[in-house]
Amino acid sequence: MHFSSTLIYALVAIALHAVDAINVKVPAGDQRCFFEVLEKGDNIRVSFQVAEGGHLDVDFSLTDPNKVLVEDTRKSSSDTYNHEVKLTGKHVYCFSNSFSTVTEKQVSFNIQVIKPHKEEDTQKKNLLEVEIRDLAIGIEDIKNEQEYTIARERTHRDTAESTNSRVVWWSLFQSAILFIVCVFQITYLKRFFEVKRVV
């Protein structure tokens, strides 16, 4: 009976964490902020990657309820931050594109809030439950990596298609120039060897 309740807990935990990444566009010279209301002892995990725009970088910051900066990273293309909450209240995290004057950035990110496991003193620590919790965290990490890989693959595919298009147009331009030069040379040589008759 205890095993089945542990298994149900694990499946619910995995299902709750199986949320798609949030995509947000950050305009040039602006920032996008979000917040989570957390309790002391919670662990917040923010993982993000820049999918499109410029050099694929943004600034990231996380502040606690007292507006004290907890995390501050400049020009990062992707990263994962773990923070154990010290104060109960609203924690704000922002993606900033203020250093860019032209390019809009598209950021894909995941938020995971891990509540501390509360255990009664009389209850023995259940190793299976701990392993299942670790497995759920590992699955979330794998999912984040897959989303990062998909975002990078999309960026590389767009770059490859753009390069291919440029190569095709450059080849057509060279072919047109070669054709014009050939026509000019044939016409010029033909005129050069023409015999002029004097009447």
From TrEMBL:
PROSITE patterns: GOLD. Gene3D superfamilies: GOLD domain (2.60.120.680). Pfam families: EMP24_GP25L. Its main location: membrane. Keywords: Membrane, Signal, Transmembrane, Transmembrane helix. Residues 1-21 form the signal peptide. The chain crosses the membrane at residues 167-189. Residues 31-113 form the GOLD domain. It is found in: Endomembrane system; Membrane. GO terms for cellular component: endomembrane system; membrane. SMART domains: EMP24_GP25L. InterPro entries: Emp24-like, GOLD_dom, GOLD_dom_sf. It is a single-pass membrane protein; Single-pass type I membrane protein. Belongs to the EMP24/GP25L family. This is P24 complex component. The lineage of its organism: Eukaryota, Fungi, Fungi incertae sedis, Mucoromycota, Mortierellomycotina.
